[in-house]
Structure formats: C-alpha cells, structure tokens
Amino acid sequence: MIVVIGGGPAGRFAAGRLGQAGREVTLVEREAIGGQCLNSGCMQVCALNDAARVMERAGDFAAAGVLDGAPHLDFSALLCEMGEVQRTIRRVLERETRAAGVEVRYGATARVDGRRVFIDDEEVEAEAVVIATGSAPAVPDLPGTGLASVYTARTLHTMPALPEHLVIAGGGVSAAEFAYIFSRLGSRVTVLARREFLGGLDPRLRRLALKELSGVEVREHTPLTGITGTSEADGAAFGGAAPGACQADAVLLAVGLVPQTAMVAGVEKGSHGEILVDGRMQTSVTGVYAAGDAAGPPYLTPIARLQGVVAAENILGHEMRYAPQAVPQALALANDLAFCLGDDGDDGIALSLPAPAGPGSFWSVPKGDTGLGKILVDPETGALRSVWAASPGAGITATYLAEAMRRKKTVFDLEDLIDVHPLAEGVHGLFAQAARVIRERDAEKEDPKSGPGER
C-alpha cells in the first residue's frame, strides 16, 4: 500500500496517478478534499472576485446612467452560496479520486516518523508515502491576533457581515486581491505593508494594480504591530517611520503561508518547517516523498500538481525530475494581471502597449483602464523571454505564452498569429512589431548607410 497524506492538489494528483497505475493507494485527508486551493485559496478568491467585479461594473453603469442605481450586496448570502459551490466541487473531486482507484479516508490523522507511517496512531505498512500536507496562513506573534474579528483566508468564510473598515496586513498578491475584493464589495480598506506593496511585480503592472486599487489606502513600510480590542478588534497599531494606529472593525492577516509539517518527524526540514526534497521529490528518507506546499515555496497550485506527479512517477519506477521552467502567475483585481518571467536576463528588446477594448473591458475605456501587454524579446534570436499581460483573460494568455517560451518560440514564429476578434488582451499585436524592429536593426547592420525609408 502507498499512503498519501493530504487531499490538496499535490496529494490528489499523486494519488490519482498511482491509482491509475493499478497500485493500492490510501489518501488520508483530515478535513476536506481540494486542499487550500479549493477551500480557502484560489477558488475562494475566484468567487469573491467575481462578485467584486460585478459590483464595480454595476457602479460604472450606474454612474453612466445605464443602471438606475447600484445593486445591494448581501454579503452573508455571498459567503453561503460560495460554500455551496465549493461543496459541489468537492463532490466532483472525490468522485474523480475514487474513480482512479484511490481509497479516501476522511477525518483521520496521519503522521510520519522517518520511514514509519501512522494513521490515527495505528502504524501501517506502506511501501512508500507522499507527504502533501499543504500550508496554512501565517499568523504573526503580535498582540490581539486571537480576537474574534481577526481573520485569515482560512477563516474568512466565518465573517458574519461585511466589515465597515477592514485592515489588511500584508503586501503581496493575497493582500492585493483581498483589498480589491472588499473595497469593491463596499468596505473601507486600509493595507499595512511591511515593505513596498507588490514590490516584486513588474513596474508597469504594479502601477496598473495601484490604479485598479483606487480607493484603497495603501501604507507601505508600515508593519502591523498589534491589534486592539477586548473580544473583537477595534483597531490596528502599526510601526514604520510614522507609527500610529487606525480604527477597524475587522483585520485580515495576509502575510504569507507556512508549511504544515508538524506531524512529520525524522526527515530533514528547512528553517521554516518545509520538508527538504531532491529533484525526484524524495526526502532524506528513502521511500518518503513530499510535494506541494509542504515542500516549501512557491506555493502555487500548478507547481503542487506537478510535484505530486513527479513523486508518483518515481514511486512507480519512472525516473522524472522536478525542473519547471517559465512558470506563469497572475493576480486577480479588476483585470487579471498575469506574467511569466524567463531566466535569460532583462537586457532584451522590451515592447508594450495598452490592451484593446474587448470582452470584459469595453466599459473600462472611460476610466482608461483596459489593461496592457508587454513582452521582452532576445535581441539576437527574437526568442520570447518574458511576458506581462493585464486583461480580463490575461491568465490564459500567460499560460500559452509560457509554453511558447519553454519551446523557445521566437517572435518570427508568432508574428503571423491570427487572434480571435474581439480579444481583450494586448500581447498578440506585439510579436509582429518586435520582429520588424529586429529585421530593421539587422538590415541597418548590413547597410549602415540605408535609412528607414530605404528598407
């Protein structure tokens, strides 16, 4: 028997692959299948962001006189219906997992001590084990974090009403996404960022993100130092160059994730509790593998799935290495802000332009916020190095262009691309422009006396 601990993306993909190969597999899930992605991560953001975009668009229509007033949001109903949809998805995932030949054990507690595996404190014989126990929202050791109206992404679904003033601690993707959501649903939002807000984002995407977060108060280099209140939060204290405090009736902690590995002993771990693995996703103990967030950053669902598959393939005796390249990412605000960064440096030809109006962005024209497209191209070969896109469907754009990057496609391969029209993204028109720039430069090198009009 092979034991897989955790029913999130990494565990489910590992278990499914092993089950499909005819192996006896037991998947142990303490809570609910789908892991953080379904239950408190990606899908929760999707649900709430959909509502936030509807409310923002309705406000635009009301301001333009198209709608007679903006609609009223029932926040409790939103959370309730979100939960119903999540339950439906869980039923689908469970059917898929069992159909692959996997036994699913809910409510059981599993732990690992070196090569020994225990389920509900009963030792079981396992030929291999995959640890896919995921991660949990980080909770800083600060006064007041245990108050009733302090939330993380995992407890957000228990929020009884839409906060009048929400303070969000964090400066990354999660903080930005929740800032957009709650500001558009009707809360006053203050973000306390320890460092620069969205500091790792491409400058143009960052400027666009800040524009899409209009109305949100973002305080950079202002770490949360404590939460005040008796039974519930009534304010947040902050440090930085100008320390102080602000009122709030709820605080959302979005300061990162930590691996959930307390139930694992006898294997090497990193400084944050992440399980150390090699390229085969094997731990320091032969036959014990780890995948997904339990193995540390980057805490991305597609990476977790891939790692689960790599672990499974190696258990089956098929040599496979975890070596991802050109991984696309995105954050969801009014637009999807997506990007895929290559590892060939940033000294190429960079071209950008505003995204055109199209599905989901036509009514953004009056605000001048239809998004953007940007590419970085190798100046010699024309190979696509990096891509950035902001549009309602930019994640799809980044997904397929990431594959083009992995396959070393050039702008000459892509310059004749025929797009579906109308399409609300600004990247596809840049390929021909980049190809033309390189051809003109090469022609000038061959004949320095020729001018642009002679080429």
UniProtKB/TrEMBL annotation:
Give coiled-coil spans as residue ranges: none
Q: Where is the FAD/NAD(P)-binding domain?
A: 2-308
Q: Record's Pfam families?
A: Pyr_redox_2
Q: Which UniProt keywords apply?
A: FAD, Flavoprotein
Superkingdom assignment: Archaea
Gene Ontology terms, MF aspect: oxidoreductase activity
* Entry keyword Flavoprotein: yes
Q: Which InterPro entries match?
A: FAD/NAD-bd_sf (IPR036188), FAD/NAD-binding_dom (IPR023753), FAD/NAD-linked_Rdtase_dimer_sf (IPR016156)
The record's listing under PANTHER family reads: GLUTATHIONE REDUCTASE (NADPH), MERCURIC REDUCTASE
What's the protein called, per UniProt? NAD(P)/FAD-dependent oxidoreductase
Q: Which organism is it from?
A: Methanofollis formosanus
